[in-house]
Amino acid sequence: MSHSVRRHLRLDIDEYDATIRRFIPGYEEMIATAARAVAAGGPEWVLDLGAGTGALAGAVLDLTEDTTVELLDVDEVMLGRARVRLSRFGDRARFTVGSFDEPLSPCDAVMASLALHHVPTLEAKAGLFGRAHQALRPGGVLVNADVTMPAIGPGRDDAYQAWADHLVSGGMSRQEAFDHFAAWSSEDTYFPMEAELEALGAAGFESSCPWRRGVSTVVVGRRL
To answer: Does residue 101 contact residue 133 with C-beta atoms inside 8 Å?
Structure first.
């Protein structure tokens, strides 16, 4: 999977951390919730899929003392930003250029934030969940902080309108908001939250949704 955040979101990497807060409702609370769900199990080794600039990795490392996070991303520019951001953690932050389309290395937790919506089909996402289940040790967790969207119908239209309201509140025009949605649709696929939970269950996880704000969602799968 090849992906460039600079091209996809049409912004400079230096602007990413500020801009993503305007794009995603409840971004900071979403990241904090996901980090707590990962850190709660006291994991030794965490795999961060599509880790970007390292916001979620940093939140987990701040909550733990002995955890190591391996940040996996195909976008070397984003990983470069993450290296700077997480330099204070030394060897507790590791960086790997690579795709989560490949088999995953053994770990205690798998996490992702605003990355797995680049998986284009529910079948492919179920395959990823299966690979995560195989990589996780018993009791491990998969935590995904991302956008979910109702299936086609009035509920989906309402969700996009509410999301546009958030972008407008940050200074964007409504037309600009929907222009962004149209541009993102070339690479982004948002599934219903219920479908995400069902796919986790089919992969062998005990699944739940501990947090949701509009389209922003945190889902958790626990390997029994």
So the answer is: no
Q: Is 199 buried (19+), middle (13-18) or exposed (0-12) by CB count in 10 A? A: buried
Question: Tens digit of pLDDT for each residue in 110-130?
Answer: 999 999 999 999 999 999 999
Q: Which residue has the tokens 């696929």?
A: 189
Q: Are strands 216-223 and 205-213 parallel, antiparallel or unpaired?
A: antiparallel
The least confident of 57-61, 66-70, 100-104 is 100-104
Token digits for 142?
């998969």
Alpha-carbon span 101 to 218, nearest angstrom: 21
Residue pLDDT, tens place only, 7-22: 444 445 568 888 999 9
For the chain, how many residues are written? 224
Q: How far is 105 from 49, CA to CA, in rounded Å?
A: 11
Structure tokens at 206: 């005990």
Give 151: exposed, middle or buried? Use CB within 10 Å, 0-12, 13-18, 19+.
Answer: exposed
User: C-alpha angle with apex 201: 67 to 34, nearest 5 degrees?
Assistant: 35
